[in-house]
């Protein structure tokens, strides 16, 4: 009984081995036949005349194309898959164009030489200076000397410039002059000579009396000055010491 079971096991094992050898041999033959059909020397099949049109491609289901595209890209590093995608109508991102550069204006070079600072200053028009405010100075002369003196001449200057130079009686207007507003100096010189009288020895002698003073002339105003010559002292005072000149303003 034991020998029969052993014999049955051996037979089954031999059968399984034979079947396995058969499948292995058949698989090798299939691989060799497929390799020979794809060899370089094989001629491609000629297209059949009047062949029916190829069926339209099936519409891809949402989400289904992602896996196939990723698989194709991984197996196609050369980029042939991207070209195939473009042929199938896949959207290819456009290349962004760089913004156009704005053309800067070109300065025109002048043939003229640049002006110097002095020439530039000459071309600058300076504003006209504001007019200086002015006023008037009017001077009068009065002779209050006694009968022993006779007035010969009266001269005067304003700021060193002659303003009058004659005598016209015992009371007269010396000048009325327009001046810039501000301070001015009036100087007056009066010349007398002896006229006889109790001091007959003084006849023919000349006596000069002079004086000066600063005055302020206001803008658009008239400053009035009265110059007066008179005698001082007593009967015993010498004639050359009696005459005095005074200035009065209004």
Strand content: 25-35%
**Assembly state:** single chain
Structural class: alpha+beta
Low-confidence stretches: 35-52, 54-78, 82-87
Rg computed from alpha carbons, rounded to a whole number of angstroms:
70 Å
Strand order of the biggest β-sheet:
4-1-7-8
In sequence order, what are the helices and strands, one letter per element?
HHHHEEEEEEEE
Instruction: Compute the separation of the termini in Å.
Output: 177 Å
Number of strands: 8
Q: What is the averaged pLDDT score? A: 74
Largest sheet geometry: 4 strands, mixed
Shape type: rod-shaped
Compute the number of helices: 4
Range of helix content: 25-40%
Tell me what you see in this structure.
- The chain is an alpha+beta fold.
- It has helices at 2-37, 64-75, 80-87, 117-123; strands spanning 134-144, 149-158, 161-164, 171-180, 182-194, 206-217, 222-231, 243-249.
- The chain has a four-stranded mixed sheet, with no helix packed on it. A four-stranded antiparallel sheet has the order 3-2-5-6, with no helix packed on it.
- A hairpin with a 2-residue loop joins strand 2 (149-158) and strand 3 (161-164).
- The protein starts with a helix and ends with a strand.
